[in-house]
Structure formats: structure tokens, C-alpha cells
Design goal:
Layout: H1 2-7, E1 12-18, E2 26-30, E3 36-42, E4 48-56, E5 62-64, E6 67-77, E7 84-95, E8 98-100, E9 104-110, E10 120-121, E11 125-135, E12 143-151, E13 164-170, E14 174-180, E15 184-186, E16 190-200, E17 204-217, E18 224-237, E19 245-251, E20 261-264, E21 268-280, E22 285-295
Length: 300
């Protein structure tokens, strides 16, 4: 059995590294096997430069039909698992057909790479960027090595950021007005607002504010919507009285938010909502939901 395992081992090792790998920021990335690894962080329009080292195992030569490196941006929908849709695909030929007897280093460069979408690991979809090195061979399977990296893109603060004002009511029983200071928030922002009770004729026992993420994938009959509650924040415990106002102050930084993704290559979108939940003494729940926009501000 051991002989068989040895027979299928590739005759070389492949190492992929970035030229500025030591100084470049590293961020955690969760792999398919559930393990988290640290990988290099890039943003759109950056140069991706590095080298590939191919090291034949001692005493073995590697006959090949050429060596190439690809930079791929891919979307995988989990209901179509294993099928990757490439929205970015760049290739550099590293070597012409021949034989490798000893360690060889190939520099590579992809200049000002257009990477419009951010890396994303969702409930039903993932978007990933990889470098893929392929050693093409005759009669036997190709030798392939992958290197993940993460892309995050930054947005300047919006020039217009209106407050949100809404009234919610149940006829002759409850009338409240709530106000959030703005409608667009960066990932480390604070939600500041106020809730006014104009009419209270039901016995409320508590009120909370939730942050919800809604991920929609696919289209038409194959649309899947997943809603996650990322945070619950108790605003009030006990019965309010008419004329009372309750302040809201909710910090976003403790929660693992992403920016709002409106339409990623017609494959998926991710939206965020503030959900106000009122619970009366008979445990009836009243909801009022409001979409907010989340963006990534360049960290200084």
C-alpha cells in the first residue's frame, strides 16, 4: 500500500510567494475544511507580484508541457457546489515545455489588477481570489498548487447621508416614532438614534434592536434567501409611558459585518437591516425593519 501512495505523489513541490509578503497586511481566511489561515490582503488596482519556486524531489526529473500561473476571481454558489464561476481570469506563461532537474524560480507580475468585488464567505455563497500554478504533463495528471489571498475595497464617506425617520403604530393602541442619525454606516461606526413614545395603550415589557444580514443568492426559482441576526441590543426593559424618549447607541465594531453588496455579478447580494422589536406582556412581537447601507472606510 505504501508503494502505491508513493507512486501518486507529485515529483516536485511548488511554492508561491508574494514579493512584499513580509510587509503586507495578513488577514484570517476560513478554508473549506473549517481551518483558518492567515493570507495576504490586497485591494483593486494593486500590482500582484511574486515568485513561484518549483523544486523536484531528489532524484526525480519533471517532464512537462509548460508551466503557467493564473490569477482567478471566482464565485461558488453552494446549491451548485464545485462549479466555480470565474469573473476575473488572468494568465502568465512561466515556462515552455521541457524538463526540470533542479530547483527553479519564476518571477510573476499581474499589474493594476481589476478586482471589483470583495472576498466573501457567506451562508450559501463564497467569493474567492486565488493564484493557481499548473505544471502541464502528458499521460499523467497535471500538478497544481493554489495560493489564496483576500481582497477588500474601500469607499470614501458618502457626501449625502440622510437620517432615517419613521413612525410605527397600531391604530389607537401604540404610536411611536424612531429616528437614526444617518442611513449609511462604516464597519466601525456607531448607530445613534432615539425612540419617542407618542401613544402607549398596550403593555409593553421590552424592546430591542437587531442587526440583520440578508444574503440572496441565485435568481428566479433558484433564489435562496438567508437572514441572520448578528446582534441583539436591549433598548428598554419595562413599560414605557407616553412622552418618553429612549436613546439608542449601538457600536458596530464588535460584529462581523461586511459592506453592503448590491449585486455581485448577478450572482448574489448582501443587505443589512435594523430591526426594531417590541414585545408586549402577552409575548406578541411587533417589528419594524429598515435597511441601512454599510461601507468599508479606509483604516488609518
Amino acid at each position: 500500500m505504501n508503494y502505491l501512495v508513493g507512486a501518486f505523489k507529485p515529483p516536485c513541490n511548488i511554492f508561491i510567494s508574494f514579493a512584499d509578503g513580509r510587509s503586507r497586511k495578513q488577514v484570517p481566511l476560513k478554508k473549506e475544511n473549517g481551518k483558518t489561515v492567515m493570507v495576504a490582503l490586497f485591494q483593486s488596482q494593486e500590482n500582484i507580484v511574486g515568485e513561484v519556486v518549483i523544486e523536484p524531489i531528489q532524484g526525480k526529473k519533471v517532464e512537462h508541457n509548460g508551466v503557467k500561473i493564473e490569477l482567478l476571481g471566482q464565485i461558488e454558489l453552494y446549491f451548485d457546489r464545485g462549479n466555480f464561476y470565474d469573473f476575473t481570469s488572468l494568465v502568465r506563461e512561466l515556462d515552455v515545455p521541457g524538463e526540470l532537474y533542479e530547483r527553479k524560480t519564476y518571477p510573476f507580475e499581474f499589474s493594476t489588477v481589476e478586482m471589483p468585488y470583495e472576498s466573501y464567505n457567506g451562508v450559501n455563497v463564497r467569493l474567492r481570489y486565488i493564484l493557481k500554478v499548473t505544471i502541464s504533463r502528458n499521460y499523467v495528471s497535471n500538478i497544481v498548487e493554489y495560493q489564496d489571498f483576500v481582497v477588500r475595497n474601500y469607499t470614501p464617506p458618502p457626501s449625502i447621508n440622510n437620517s432615517i425617520k419613521m413612525e410605527v403604530g397600531i391604530e389607537d393602541c401604540l404610536h411611536i416614532e424612531f429616528e437614526y442619525s444617518k442611513s449609511k454606516y462604516h464597519l466601525k461606526d456607531v448607530i445613534i438614534g432615539k425612540i419617542y413614545f407618542l401613544l402607549v395603550r398596550i403593555k409593553l415589557k421590552n424592546m430591542e434592536l437587531e442587526i440583520r444580514r440578508r444574503e440572496s443568492t441565485g435568481s428566479g426559482p433558484n433564489t435562496y434567501v438567508e437572514t441572520e441576526t448578528l446582534a441583539k441590543f436591549e433598548l428598554m426593559d419595562g413599560a414605557p409611558v407616553r412622552g418618553e424618549s429612549i436613546p439608542i447607541r449601538l457600536f458596530l465594531s464588535p460584529y462581523e459585518l461586511t459592506p453592503t453588496y448590491r449585486n455581485i455579478n448577478n450572482k448574489f447580494c448582501v443587505k443589512y437591516y435594523l430591526n426594531l422589536v417590541l414585545v408586549d406582556e402577552e409575548d406578541r412581537r411587533y417589528f419594524k425593519q429598515q435597511e441601512i447601507t454599510v461601507y468599508r472606510l479606509l483604516e488609518t
